[in-house]
Amino acid sequence: MSDHSDGLETLDADLRDVAGHGARHSQGLPAAEVRRRGSRRRATRLAATSAAALILVVGGTALALGTGGETTTAPPATPPITGAQLVDTFLYHGEEEPGIRWEAARTTSSEDPEAPVSVCQRATLTSLGATDVRVRTYDWVLELQPGEVDGAPGPDPAMRMVVARFADPAAAAKAYRTVGRWVDDCAANVRRNRDGAYVAEPVTRFSEVAGPTGEGWTAIIGYPEQPEVDPDAAVIDPHAVGITADRTGVVLVSQPMLGQDYNAPPAEAPVTRMLAEELRLLSTSPEAR
Amino acid sequence: MDAERFDAFYAASFAKLCGQVYAMCGDLAEAQDCVQEAFVRAWDHRRRLDDTRSPEAWVRAVAWRLAVSRWRRARLALRPPDRALSAARRVPEPDVAHTALVAALRQITPDQRRAVVLHHLCDLSVGEVAEETGVPVGTVKARLSRGRQALAALLVDPREEQSRV
Question: Are residue B44 and residue B101 in the same domain, yes or no?
Fold first, then answer.
């Protein structure tokens, strides 16, 4: 393409020599590892904030978890919540990401105010009057084939679920409204949490859940990831907020991920399914299991 | 784009793109890291990639933006210590002419360098360069012209210059 007389007649060929040198001495990862990292990237979020969250606020006086955590001994005024009443695996698009699953890994009995489980959260549920709280973490697990090695650096994505119990239905209902406002107003909160670096898109309602075990709604929250690198990529952070049918339990779900779009139909979206399943589990008597 | 097609695309394009981005940024290790990360993002965005006329151009553009972002972070001394912790790559020494061209490319502006490489190495037309870089055709022409002028001045053989005096 050089048709100038500026002494660069061999520029095309010289550039090819340079590029050829680079091409000959480049070493890439195996394609399967590249795909695995891409899938991990989609499932994870920026390290500055924790991953997906499910927050439950449940009326009553005591809470006990069996799976992955300790059991409280306070005498319950209502049947205690057991580990079996918590979703044990996040209902992710497993069919789209073969070899990847979510696994309930840890359950703790307190909230860390410095690490809220949702980017929308402005306070702990304990500070809203919850009498007992549990936080469950789900780990992102690769199902490696024999001979495969997971060489991706950095922490794996994780999701978290919070369950809180309130002493009376009025307190739980108030917490439900408060958590709902956090999600509705999340754009301002994202901006604040990210030190002005990100401006969230307006929060849009996505789907509704209504049934004999409770009701609720979901919303999509999005904010740019690294706009100077990939203007189309964003953290997409679906949330769900719900309350149990006895008007004492509240649910908040969050599933942050990186991507450009959110393809799940509203009724089949992971957060919608997660909310409906958690409301169902909470409405089931532990003794019935 | 399914896994099979992606793997074929990756196998066919990785080395070539490393070479092109190396010419753009002048650092082979940096180019390789950026192209690798761009392919990771390509799999993440594989649905979007299906709609792209040239997946290779998409990966190259993302790799370039990653490189620019790294420069900015390096300038701010905020770069993560990943390179410092990894084993140094051993690459054979290139020849003198190659070294001179890389050194000259490093001294022209990044925008000029990108335009020169896309036009003269990747064989993109001025219009295609404009499309990939997101600037008007006139801007591309100006970058190419000024980039060539700057390269010509930088690459002049000292012996030739001496003989002109």
Answer: no
| B77-118 pLDDT, tens digit each | 333 333 333 334 444 555 566 778 888 888 888 889 999 999
B62 vs A4, A16, A230: nearest CB: A230
Taking only residues 11 to 70 of chain B, the set having a beta carbon closer than 8 angstroms to any beta carbon of chain A reads: 11, 14-16, 18-23, 28, 31-32, 35-36, 39-48, 62, 65-66, 68-69
Q: Which two tokens stand for residue A157?
A: 């994505």
* C-alpha span between B43 and B59 (Å, rounded): 10
- pTM of model > 0.90: no
Nearest CB to B152; choose among A8, A20, A226: A8
Residues B23 and B70 in one domain: yes
The C-alpha atoms of residue A201 and residue A259 are separated, in whole angstroms, by: 14
* Token pair for B154: 């930088």
Residue B162 banded pLDDT, cuts 50, 70, 90:
low
> Which range marks the domain in which residue B77 is found?
1-91
Q: Which residue do the tokens 């002048």 mark?
A: B26
Q: B130 and B80 in one domain?
A: no
Angle value at C-alpha A83, between A218 and A267, nearest 5 degrees: 25
Helix residue ranges per DSSP H, chain B: 3-25, 28-44, 46-50, 55-75, 82-85, 96-107, 110-116, 126-133, 137-155, 158-164
Contact B83/A at CB under 8 A: no
| Interface subset of A 141-170, CB within 8 angstroms of B | 153
Same domain, B9 and B33: yes
Q: What is the domain count for chain A?
A: 1
User: How far is B32 from chain A, CA to nearest CA, in Å?
Assistant: 6
Domain with A133 in it: 50-288
Contact A18 B48 (CB under 8 A): no
A204 touches chain B (CB under 8 A): no
A257 → chain B, closest CA residue: B44
Taking contacts as CB-CB distances below 8 angstroms, the residues of chain A near B129 are none
Is A42 within the bounds of a domain?
no
